[in-house]
Amino acid sequence: MSQSFFFNGFPDFHQRHDAPILDEFRRLAKRQSWRVKDRDFKEIRRECLQAEFEYHFGGIEAGNKLAGWQGLCAELGLSPNIPSIKQCRKALKRVHVNILDLIDDRRAGRQIETYSSARALADYTNEHKRYFPLDDTQGESLIKILLKQIR
User: What is the pLDDT of residues 71-83, one digit of tens each?
Assistant: First the structure.
């Protein structure tokens, strides 16, 4: 399996594809001597997470193929037979999933856990501190559809 776009920038780093993305980022950060208190740490972490999302899910949007959207819907527990991309996008807006877990579950080949409500997702996300950066999410992109404001 190839490395995600972000990790390709570090040819001597060999990511573990089934390990949680934040564990791999922390392992790389330690190797690169990046510290949480460093001015650029948060930005580098954001780049890593967004690149990893793009690696796993970017092809769905890029190809704009109904089968890709239907596959993601099925992966998230929705009907695999939604008849259009527009309807898939609409259905995905109602899905409550933690984006970091979505990435980790895809990396590990596990069933993706979804939540019954935005409140349940927020409770889980806050309790486990599993936040995906909101910066630079544009328009009606897949990531924007799946992201929920957590309070």
Answer: 899 999 999 899 9
